[in-house]
Amino acid sequence: MNEKPLEALRLELLRLELTGFIVPHADEYQNEYVPACAERLAWLTGFTGSAGSAIVLAEEAAMFVDGRYTIQVADQVDQQDFTFNHSSDQPPATWLEYHVRPSNRIGYDPRLHTPKDLERYQKACERAEAQLIPCSPNPIDLVWRERPALPMGIIQPHLLEFSGRSSQEKREELAKSLRDDGVDAAVISAPDSIAWLLNIRGSDVSHTPLPLCQAILYATGRVAVFVDSQKVSSGLAAHLGPDVSLETTEAFEGVLQQLGQQGQRVLCDPMKTNTWIFSTLTTHGAHLVHAADPCSLPKACKNSVEIQGAYAAHERDGVAVCQFLAWLDRESLSGQMTELQASDYLDDRRKQQAMWEDASFPTISGAGANGAIVHYRSTPETNRALELETLYLVDSGGQYLDGTTDITRTVAIGPPSEEYRDRYTRVLLGHIALAMAKFPEGTTGSQLDALARSPLWAMGLDYDHGTGHGVGSYLGVHEGPQRISKSASDVALKPGMIVSNEPGYYKTGAYGIRIENLVVVQRVEKAKDSNRSFLAFDTLTVVPFDRKLIDVALLSASERSWVDRYHARVRKCLDAKVDSETRVWLEQATQPLS
């Protein structure tokens, strides 16, 4: 009989004279979505979510997830092996402090933790008089039989017609900023930052065109990229130009050491760069500058070409989603359609669109109670039928060469109940409030979050996830540093940023509702008697809401007008682009609210 992963890890920890081990959902690049070879948490626990962690001790083990995954973790992880904890109510470091004993030796992989993350564990161990021990190699890797190989996706140029700015222009701008700050070099360890800076894309991670590599940007404007030669496409060197050198992955450590030995001032982002990089630099004498990844903010503020691409990508995406919703409207009343059949049809519609490259994440297709699982993924074992008089939630997106999309629609299968209509309309009211918001420059997403929650709060209801996340340009469907959430943020929303607007409501064991559009931050005309610049959102997504679920009596005149204007725009954008059957559905779906 095969040994369980948890048992195998505990035996290996015993051999290494460790009392426990910390297992984050992370890779050495601190990606949200990681390649198969880095899915250590899934191998150990069975949990497949994109965020979470585990702590394994000799006699007990614990899982930690946020509100998106509280239902999923209970479905996927054996409660006899792990206790479940909400990471906000019981953070992993707090749990560790109260469960370790003096002289315990707790292992961690320094390539999987940032200094900010590790600091919390270090303080917890110090208070418990335990030790935190770096491990190389990772103990899981030593016992994970048939661990997948490292990904070797080919790196391709991302053309100027999509990027809008040359790599040289970006590098020169950032290099000047480093010089102005007295910094000699910056370690760029986030693959999406490297992709943006060098105008390249890869295929090492499912659904996100990331090239897994490391880079160093020097104050001269030169960049060294550390990457496996198998990933280098013909013509890539010519695309990158003479000021970008391609080095082996093995050379990275030596260059870090050299920067230290030369006493260089090196910028590292403590939120994105792993602890191994920090310790390698400091051990060899580098002077570290703790600052944000210099690519992060300019990458988030899309230029005019990227914004035009986003509008175009969303129109094509709208065609695909409307074709799907029209088909769903015709076929779902049988009560026989399943979640997987629906998601397969939607995925196929997207694949027919120009410039489509991939889904931007696995489609969330949740019928009935499965819709209440925020990041649900349908499988043959969980696949439900779309039954009459229930709700169906579908959250999906596409990766196009000119933009990344992400949209959620909740639809009624057959006649909706009054409860469905009430909850849906309150979610819609929050969505409209955020979409209509005007706010002074310097406003953060956390200052706007309550607008989307207020209609639910009025009924004593809420949702346990953020209201909005940043979105990349043919890059990550989740992109920082901007966000709209309860969590405090010091990152102001700026023109060109793309964020999601996605309030929701979830009744465990019954149904889920989420309404998501992507919006872009724009300047608005300054009022004559104002000396402050104001910003607003313009909606990119062009797909109707389910009018059957809208209780018009709950909407004010201005809110009804907003919905009618939005639907008129959807119809105008898509009418000439969809097939005749979809056009008939679209005409009905975008009628003014009565």
Structural class: alpha+beta
CATH homologous superfamily assignment of the largest domain: Creatinase/methionine aminopeptidase superfamily
CATH topology of the largest domain: Creatine Amidinohydrolase
Report the count of strand segments.
Answer: 28
Number of domains in the coordinates? 3
C-alpha termini separation: 65 Å
Mean pLDDT: 96
Q: Biggest sheet, strands in spatial order?
A: 4-3-2-1-5-6
**Assigned CATH architecture of the largest domain:** Alpha-Beta Complex
Measured by DSSP, the beta-strand proportion falls in: 15-25%
The rounded Rg comes to 25 Å
Largest sheet: 6 strands, mixed
Question: Could you name the ranges where pLDDT drops below 50 across 5 or more consecutive residues?
Answer: none
- Note the total helix count: 19
| Shape type | globular
Q: Mind explaining what this structure looks like?
A:
The protein is globular. It has a six-stranded mixed β-sheet with strand order 4-3-2-1-5-6, sandwiched between helices. It has a six-stranded mixed β-sheet with strand order 12-11-10-8-13-14, sandwiched between helices. A four-stranded antiparallel β-sheet has the order 21-28-27-24. The protein starts with a helix and ends in a 5-residue tail after the last helix. The chain contains 19 helices and 28 strands. Helix 11 crosses helix 12 (about 275-285), helix 14 packs across helix 15 (about 340-350) and helix 16 (about 420-435) packs antiparallel against helix 17 (about 445-455). The protein has three domains: about 5-145, 3-Layer(aba) Sandwich (Creatine Amidinohydrolase, Chain A, domain 1); about 155-295, Creatine Amidinohydrolase, Chain A, domain 1; about 300-590, Alpha-Beta Complex (Creatine Amidinohydrolase), CATH 3.90.230. With about 600 residues, it is α+β, with helices and mostly antiparallel strands. The longest helix has 28 residues, at about 305-330.
